[in-house]
Amino acid sequence: MTKQYKNEALAAAHEAALGLAEAGIMPKKTMRVFDEMCLTPVEAISPEDIRALRLRENASQAVFARYLNVTTGLVSQWERGEKRPRGASLKLLTLVSKNGLGAVA
User: Fold this and answer.
1) Beta bridge mates, 90
2) CA distance 31 to 26
3) Which residues pair with 5 in a beta bridge?
């Protein structure tokens, strides 16, 4: 999956910084600052927001689960608040929230 940036200017800055880091010119600590500044942030998402997001995209739980590469049961558990998305699933939900299901298709 490609990196998702807040905007094109930050994408260019991040790519330049990444080149400097790979060349050993920029320290890893500074690169982490660039990552935090430039990449799309990942925030917690409530069960109600997950359901609203799925309905906004006109997707059943099964279809939504296929896009996110998770089980239908897990989507159901997220929507009921029994489990919370984390890691890659949370990142994908953030991208879908900002850019629609087409962003992960």
Assistant:
1) none
2) 7
3) 39
Domains of the chain: 8-38 (no CATH), 47-103 (1.10.260.40)
DSSP SS3 for 84:
coil
Q: Amino acid letter at 67? A: Y
Per-residue pLDDT tens over the stretch 13-24: 888 888 888 988
Higher pLDDT, 72 or 4: 72
19, 20, 38, 52 from 25: Cα distances, Å = 9, 5, 19, 45
CB 39, CB 4: distance < 8 Å: yes
pTM for the complete prediction? 0.66
Q: How confident is the model over 33-85, as pLDDT tens digits?
A: 877 777 767 789 999 999 999 999 999 999 999 999 999 999 999 999 999 99
